[in-house]
Design brief:
N-acetylglucosamine-6-phosphate deacetylase; metal-binding; TIM Barrel; six-stranded mixed beta sheet; alpha/beta; metal ion binding; eight-stranded parallel beta sheet; N-acetylglucosamine-6-phosphate deacetylase activity; 2 domains; Urease, subunit C, domain 1
């Protein structure tokens, strides 16, 4: 069926289109045009002056709807994915955190199954750890980090083609060889939970670490050791021109001043927004039953309040937070859709409203609340408060 969305502000790679329409059919965008005349035979959707924008690309997400991807069950994968789809995440890379390799093999099998389904929002697997610096890993990774083992990571990567990203600490022995191997396979490699300084970041980037996970979090900035001062991971990443970054823009992990600084120094093309969301995100108000964590002040904390444990953000929250911080809406949307699509090498079909791309489309009102979601051309009925 041909569907035509009219009477909205359409966000395109060229900027805002104030009068026009988006046409979709068979899961694809047929055309984005400056003509809003109703086409004969089309199902007409009136956007009522709201924003028509690309679906979000979620490239770092641990779970949602009460489930964590480390459960490695089909129910967990489908529930968490759908929970975030309701908040605009039309493309998802499920994240497995510091897990035993038998679980990584299980997750890869599940991911492959979902990727093969027509119109699936799952585009590949993201692994965070277990090759992390123990000093920077935090309590939530206690007992789960380990030294880099070439045999085990090669065995996993030779058994599956679904892994699209892997995060590690670049200062660990064997990390540069790990990055080179992954780069040869076209997998994004990110620095994470690290205290690497400039020379280490420079060497890491040259080896294949081209992205910085949850920038500013679990990494040091400018610091002092005895009487001397040293640049931290943060400044080192800023100085590495080609390295991309991601921001947990939930308004808690990073203050608005830091969001603006990262946006100013790295720019839209090198900055993407991520939820880094845990199982207790997108739960529609349900309480969590894990004694290790508490939800307080709009974030998940360790029960003893010694540290943030993770985010409960959703894609729409990220965009609202950036706009509230003073970032233009168009740039916030690009960082939630176009930039992660480019970084994950799926921009040929995701991340923008363009002819022949997948029909992943959101309608958002003036307060940037989701009013309707189309994923691969299918309206997600639970999201529809538009018509």
């Amino acid at each position: 069926m041909l569907t035509q969305i009219i009477n909205g502000r359409i966000f395109t790679p060229q900027g805002w289109l104030n009068e026009g329409s988006v046409l979709m059919r068979d899961g694809k965008i047929l055309e984005v045009t400056n003509c809003d005349l109703a086409l004969i035979g089309a199902k007409l959707i009136d956007a009522k002056g709201m924003y028509i924008v690309p679906g979000f690309v979620c490239m770092h997400i641990h779970g949602g709807g009460g489930h964590d991807f480390t459960e490695c069950t089909e129910e967990a994968f489908r529930t968490a994915t759908h929970a975030h789809l309701l908040h605009g995440a039309t493309t998802i890379f499920p994240t497995l955190s510091a897990s035993p390799f038998d679980k990584l093999h299980q997750a890869a099998a599940l991911c492959e199954k979902m990727m093969q389904e027509p119109g699936s929002p799952v585009e590949g697997l993201h692994i965070e750890g277990p090759y992390l610096n123990p000093k920077m890993a935090g309590e939530q990774f206690a007992g789960q980090v380990k030294a880099i083992d070439e045999k085990e990571y090669k065995e996993l990567l030779e058994s599956t083609n679904c892994i699209r990203r892997w995060d590690a600490s670049p200062e660990l022995p064997g990390a540069l060889e790990f990055a080179k191997y992954l780069r040869e396979k076209g997998i994004l490699v990110a620095v994470s939970h690290t205290e690497a300084e400039y020379d280490e970041i420079k060497a890491a980037y040259e080896a294949g670490f081209t992205h910085a996970a949850h920038f500013y979090n679990a990494m040091p900035g400018f610091h002092k050791r005895r009487e001397y001062k040293y640049e931290g991971t943060v400044e080192s990443v800023y100085l590495t021109d080609g390295m991309t970054i991601e921001l947990i823009a939930d308004g808690i992990h990073l203050p608005s001043t830091i969001l603006r600084l990262a946006y100013k120094l790295k720019g839209v093309d090198h900055t993407c927004l991520v939820t880094d969301a845990m199982s207790c995100s997108a739960t529609a108000g349900k309480e969590i039953n894990d004694p290790r964590y508490i939800i307080e002040d709009g974030v998940c904390k360790l029960a003893d309040r010694s540290s943030l444990a993770g985010s409960i953000a959703t894609g729409d929250v990220l965009v609202r937070t950036m706009v509230k911080a003073g970032i233009p809406l168009g740039d916030a949307l690009r960082m939630a859709s176009e930039t992660p699509a480019r970084i994950m090498n799926i921009f040929d079909r995701k991340g923008s409203l363009q002819k022949d791309k997948d029909a992943d489309i959101l309608v958002m009102d003036k307060d940037l609340n989701i009013r309707a979601v189309w994923q691969n051309g299918q309206l997600i009925e639970e999201t529809n408060t538009l018509f």
